[in-house]
Design brief:
Blueprint: H1 16-36, H2 44-57, H3 65-74, H4 78-82, H5 86-99, H6 107-122, H7 131-145, H8 150-162, H9 172-175, H10 183-190, H11 192-200, H12 207-214, H13 236-251, H14 262-274, H15 280-288, H16 290-298
Length: about 325
């Protein structure tokens, strides 16, 4: 609800604090947009009064009155504005990166984190509800058929949960478009797997997971994206997640098509195999275990997710 006006936030029946925090993010976002429009940093101090006036004019409509009061009080010092200049923000982020405390987590902790991220990503569109969970469960199942076990299998599952984290940068109207995507919209979509790589590679210890998650649109023939890896350049774990991603997506209703039955999904995977887009051995495993693959892709909670905390009602 970070783009919902304050006077409209009562309609979704939100808890008062949830509505207030959503509106706080909206106010901060709008102020940042105004700052970004300043041609040079030196003009920030010249923009103080106009931006404060703009926020004041929308008190009670766009913004909660108490947030407007807090903003007006906080934004009196020049330092408030100078600290929001792009060069200072970049410097501050760098300092945070170098001074942040690291913490070692267990695989169970990491999976809990990944489940929360998957919930947030899938909630961007009601058409993709449970997509990341389904990809994760099917990836784990196919990984087991490929001979993986223990922590390696758990890492494949986590990569499946996180594979679409880059879609947080894709506008909802592109994800939910019922029409064929334009070239510009397709270019936006194609950035998401590289964004997944950029996000996950910063987390120490996630090197393999980051790679597998970000390569789910690579093709064994080299025609995929964003890296154009081919053949054995693509790890088997990445190839498993690719097949799981394709299967789960086809098994879900999307704005431009209905969900496909298992037999139809297998036919389309075989066509992709013929075009050298997916690993033939993994498709063979799907063919030999079609009923189980369908259960793991869209069957809801399984032993892989049972007992882990989930978020609900995300918008």
């Amino acid at each position: 609800f970070h783009h919902t006006h304050w006077d409209k936030l009562g309609r979704p029946n939100l808890e008062p604090m949830t509505a207030l925090f959503a509106n706080l993010i909206y106010l901060a976002d709008r102020v940042d947009v105004q700052i970004a429009a300043c041609p040079v940093n030196d003009s920030l101090l010249m923009s103080m009064a106009p931006i404060r006036d703009l926020v004041t004019r929308h008190r009670g409509t766009n913004f909660a009155p108490e947030l407007v009061e807090a903003f007006l009080e906080a934004s009196v010092p020049e330092a408030f504005w100078l600290a929001l200049s792009p060069d200072y923000v970049a410097e501050h982020v760098t300092e945070m990166h170098h001074s942040g405390n690291s913490r070692t987590v267990t695989h169970a902790d990491l999976k809990r984190f990944a489940l929360i991220i998957a919930d947030i990503v899938d909630a961007k569109s009601h058409f993709t509800k449970e997509h990341s969970i389904g990809v994760s469960q099917l990836s784990r199942y196919l990984g087991g058929l490929a001979g993986f076990s223990g922590e390696r299998l758990g890492e494949i599952e986590i990569a499946g949960l996180l594979h679409d984290i880059g879609k947080l940068q894709v506008p909802d109207e592109v994800l939910d478009s019922p029409a064929a995507l334009s070239m510009a919209e397709r270019a936006v979509i194609m950035k998401h797997s590289f964004a997944t790589w950029r996000i996950l590679r910063r987390i120490g210890g996630l090197g393999d997971v980051a790679r597998w998650a970000s390569e789910h649109h690579e093709s064994v023939g080299g025609q995929g994206y964003p890296f154009h890896f081919a053949g054995r350049e693509i790890p088997i774990e990445s190839r498993i997640i690719k097949v799981a991603d394709v299967y789960q997506a086809l098994a879900q209703t999307r704005p431009y098509r209905r969900a496909a039955p298992p037999g139809e999904i297998l036919r389309m995977l075989r066509e992709m195999q013929a075009r050298n887009e997916v690993d033939a051995g993994i498709v063979d495993q799907v063919a030999g275990n079609l009923e189980a693959c369908q259960k793991y892709a869209v069957g809801g909670e399984t032993e892989a997710t049972a007992g882990y905390p989930r978020l609900s009602g995300i918008s």
